[in-house]
Amino acid sequence: MRRLALVILVLTTAGLALVLSSCGSSITPLSASSAPSIISLQQSSDAQMLDMLAPSTSYKPMALSSQQLTKSGLQPQVVTLACVAGYTWGANSDGDLAPADGTITYGDCSGTTITSSGTFTIADTNDNDAYSGFNAALNNFDLNAPGVGVTLSINGTVDVLRTSVPPSPNYDLNYSLDIAITVPGLSGTANMSGTPTFASNVTGTTDPWVSGTFTFNGTATFVTSNGYHYSLTRTGTGVYDTSACLGAFTGGSLITYTDSQGNKLVIGYSGCDTGSWMYTASSGGGSTGTF
Known about the structure:
Layout: H1 2-21, H2 35-53, H3 66-72, E1 84-89, E2 101-106, E3 115-124, E4 133-145, E5 150-162, E6 170-183, E7 186-194, E8 197-200, E9 211-224, E10 229-241, E11 254-259, E12 264-271, E13 274-280, E14 286-290
């Protein structure tokens, strides 16, 4: 999930920045007041992932359209202004828009005082099979913004593995991101990893991606130099059915967040992108809401 990896990166970095900005004060990212924001972020990131699997005659499952690649920043031709020093981009024999292999090398950011280094690599598992999956990695990516005193270092991998052949495919994903960030007076790290899966409900010759079930398991851990430690775990399943809901989860989806402070947020879908949530605090109190 190339695009998913970028979503994870953005959300994890934003979360770590939030922790750092607290400067040691006691904060609880998972709370009744934050529940609507968490749900909004969850829906946004999930929608982007689901969009990649929406039925299309222009690309195969696990592929991105040229427009999506442009938005994600993974198309080398459109990231020349994003601190890219050079790239190589291999052939795409199976037409899934994942190259046989590719490398983007980062360098100084033109027209700014920001500097960067590191590489992004991607490789198609089998460039003769659009269903074969791929692996991608962000290697020793460093970003330095001296004007604001912020530095960022990232290493991350995403592996997409096919576990059965069409027309009833299953995909296993393994992702891991390690992020270190420094702001004036404070530094911290974040790690996010998980093993989401997708299983189609469709058999026969019908498009297998019109409906299925996602299972999400992942954990994000934040640690700061002032002794703050926090982890957030997500589990659950998301029901995907384009006949009932295009680009979002629908009824039967259930997602649970738990944190290292003993708090829990349960999100249940009753229809297309709608449902209710229940927050239970470690103290025993709680609240509910709808979305």
